[in-house]
Structures are given as C-alpha cells and as structure tokens.
Amino acid sequence: MSAAHEAIVPWLASAWQVWANRLAQQRVPHGVLIAGPAGLGKREFAAALAASALCTDRRADGHACGACRGCRLRSAGTHPDRYGVTYELNDRGVPRSEIVVAQIRELSTKLVQTSQLGGWRIAIIDPVDAMNAAAANALLKTLEEPEPGAIIVLVSDEPMSLPATIRSRCQRVDARFPPRAAAREWLLARGLEPALADASLDLAAGNPGAALALAGKAERALAQEVTRDLAAIAAGSMRAAEAAARWHKDQADLRLVIAAQAVRLAAWQRATGGSEVFGLTVPGDLHKLGAWWDRANRVREQLATPLRADLMLLDLLREWRALASVQPVR
Ligand SMILES: [Zn+2]
Question: In the chain, what is the straight-line distance between the N-terminal and C-terminal CA atoms, in Å?
C-alpha cells in the first residue's frame, strides 16, 4: 500500500494544504463535502483527512504519521472515533440500495458522545447522495447542531442531487478534471508509456483515474468491445439483451466505467460540433447523454448490492437503445 501522502493527487494538493492548515489550527468545520466525478481521488482525500484528524503525531505536511496509537487503530479499522456510513444490510441480511434514516440517527448518537481517545471524532458518509429523503433530513439536523470536536465528511459523485440545505452547511472540496498535461504527467509517474497515457486519456475522456484503470492491454481490448457494443446497440444491429448478458458475465464494473466515459466523450464531441463514434442522431440531446452517464455510474455503484445486476444492465442498455435514435442499418 502506498504512503498516505501519495494518495493525494496533484490536482487536490492545494486543497489538501488548506485542510492540513485547518487541522493544525483546530479550525475544522463541522461538515465537509468532497464532491466531483469518480476517478479524481475524492475517496483517497477523505481517507487521508480522517487519518490526519485521528493522528496524534501529525507530520509537517499535515499527513498522519502512520505509527502512533491513533494511526495503528485506524489502519486496523478499529479506531473508536472513526465512523463510516455507507450501504448497509437490512434486517434480512440484504444490502440496501440507499442510506436510511436509522443509520444517520445512529451516527448522530455516536457523535454526541465524548471522544474515546480524546481527539477528533470523524465520520465519512459515502456515497452521501445515496441517502433517502428521511436520512437527508436527519443529517441536516445534525449539521445544524454541530458537536464540538466532530467532523462529518460527505463524499459524493453527484453533489447536485443533494439537498441545497446540506450543501450550504458544508465546506466544499471540489475534485475537478485536471488539465490534460497534469493528468498525463500523473499517468507517466505511474509508469505508463507516453503513447499509452495519451490513448488511455482519450478513452477516458480526460479522467486520469479512469485512464489508469483502462491502461492495461486487456482493459483496452475490453474498452474496444464495449464501445463496439454501444455503437451496435445504437445502430440497432445488436440487441440490448445480448450485450447485457455478456456484460453481466464478465467485468461488469469495468465495462460500466468504460461505457460511462465513452458516452461522456461522445457528449463532449457532440457539444463541440465534432463527430463521435456512436453516430447518435438525436441533435441537442446532450442532457439525455448526461443523464445516461449518471445512470451508468449509479448502476456501477449498485453492482455490489444484491439488486439484480443482470436486470439493471438490461434496463441501462435498453435506455441507451431508446436514447440513440435509429437510422436504418444497411
Ligand atoms: Zn499517527
């Protein structure tokens, strides 16, 4: 595992400095919202922030020392002042597809208790946009009545789907796409050859995390297959069910990363007047492409739940078929 300081990507380095200073000066706000697309280092930032808050011997750069009692408990996953809220099992042992109010209430109860180790208490809610309405209301109440010494970190790929009242109560860290050169440099530092870095960035529409995930030979072959599938479904020459079954059987997660990025790229190419690989014929339907991109990312998050992945994939690809207006295939 890499050291904590390597986990902060260069495009979040200045944001990290701000937080390191805040922690050093004990001026940390109650709510922190780390927002932006997947693949840009948000979760690593949240983890580093929590590690730093719980460390009793923080380094000069603000990162956790990795050796103190707080650090040891944290890396063992047993720190009593660190709480995680995410998808959870329901009473029947089945993972839920949303974060429910009981989870937020339980967290609030924990946060009013005194710190077990005498330092910060820190909670990470991820993905916070998976909260249902009741859970969001409960979280808003907690944010409105801050407990001294408690930090609530919210992680979201889709911050716009959060209530504005929650967003406005948090200090924000925005993970944005870095400039192409910075993304490329980051990939080169990870050992990618320049040509591969460029090809992967193209494939990932400039998202460095996605580009890294797509950089292997097998991944590139898979990317070509996924792009071909989407084009064939759009053209009406392949049934959504056929592709859905194949995707379900093999690397559904990575295929969805690829599909989302490919559609994002197509939307961008359409928006800038270029031609794109799918030959979509619905003019001005960028909004729908954006919605499909969101939906693909959501389905990917839900693959880890026992929701029927095969049916979700089928729905998603049928939506794609409906979205892509059909030209007669010759
Ligand atoms: Zn430490």
Answer: 52
Q: 12 alpha carbon to ligand 1 midpoint, in Å?
A: 22
Distance 74 CA to ligand 1 centre (A): 9
What does the pLDDT look like over 79-115, one tens digit per residue? 999 999 998 878 877 777 899 999 999 999 999 998 9
pLDDT digits (tens, 9 = 90+) for 197-247: 998 888 787 889 989 988 888 888 898 899 999 999 988 899 999 999 999
- What integer pLDDT is reported at residue 92 of this predicted model? 79
Q: Do residues 211 and 200 touch, judged by C-beta distance below 8 A?
A: yes
The token duo for 34 is 């780390």
Cα(80) to centroid of ligand 1, in Å? 15
C-alpha 118 to ligand 1 mean position (Å): 14
Contact 34, 156 (CB under 8 A): yes
Distance 244 CA to ligand 1 centre (A): 46
302, with CB counted inside 10 A (0-12, 13-18, 19+), is middle
Inter-residue contact 301 to 128 (CB < 8 Å)? no
